[in-house]
UniProtKB/TrEMBL annotation:
Pro residues bias locations: 33-42
Source species of the chain: Enterovirga rhinocerotis
Protein name, entry field: Tetratricopeptide repeat protein
Ranges: TPR repeats: 128-161, 162-195
Extent of Low complexity compositional bias: 43-52
């Protein structure tokens, strides 16, 4: 029996992925306050399976419930449902490749993870989760510029992806741009008001950023 891919929030808190690197960033990073238009699709994507309208509606409802959650326990349960939904592509092949990529990531084989996720983004170019997880792989490989580009792709496809916004906050923090990091964390918290990592980072950064002209 094949298990589903590891929830991305579990990767976020994994020290093996986010422990030490503080790399230099290239210029032209995406603006956390803007979601760019989608790029051209890869040459031979797998035929997309259009989700049923009730499935899309259910995801919308989950995001609505998450934003209105009354406490952290309620929010955690709803967020877990959303993550599981986002982690399904509708393609058995893409899902299997993603699972193998996550095994590579947890084994600290970022190069293999990128190779596998390259195939996933060709098969399912509209799948935000694939782009988000490849961003994690690029970060593990100490390539923040490409990680940023993949987060831009992910947030174009799913602007409510609170884990992608949190990743963006971490990347901007590593680059030294506290204002952009704070903006990204606040976007995450608008979607998931009890997201622990984002909440702690927002409290830490807000006094510094809000107290000066931007």
């Amino acid at each position: 029996m094949r298990h589903g891919p590891m929830p991305l929030s579990a990767l976020l808190i994994s020290a093996c992925l986010f422990g030490a690197p503080q790399p230099a960033f290239a210029q032209g990073r995406p603006d956390p306050g803007k979601v760019p238009p989608p790029p051209s699709a890869p040459a031979k994507p797998e035929a997309a399976t259009k989700p049923a309208s009730n499935a899309a509606s259910t995801l919308d409802e989950l995001y609505g419930r998450l934003a209105a959650a009354k406490d952290a326990d309620e929010a955690k349960g709803i967020a877990s449902l959303i993550e599981r939904r986002l982690a399904r592509s509708g393609s058995d092949t893409a899902d299997l490749l993603l699972s193998r990529a996550m095994v590579a990531l947890t084994s600290k084989d970022g190069a293999l993870a990128v190779e596998l996720l390259d195939r996933v983004t060709v098969l399912r170019p509209g799948w935000a989760e694939a782009w988000t997880r490849r961003a994690v792989a690029f970060w593990q490989l100490d390539d923040p510029s490409r990680a940023m580009m993949d987060l831009e792709e992910a947030l174009t496809r799913e602007p409510r992806h609170f884990v992608a916004w949190t990743l963006l906050g971490r990347l901007e923090t590593a680059s030294g741009d506290k204002a952009r990091a704070l903006a990204a964390y606040r976007r995450a918290l608008k979607i998931h008001p009890f997201l622990d990592d984002a909440e702690k980072a927002e409290k830490r950064l807000a006094p510094e950023v809000d107290g000066r002209d931007l």
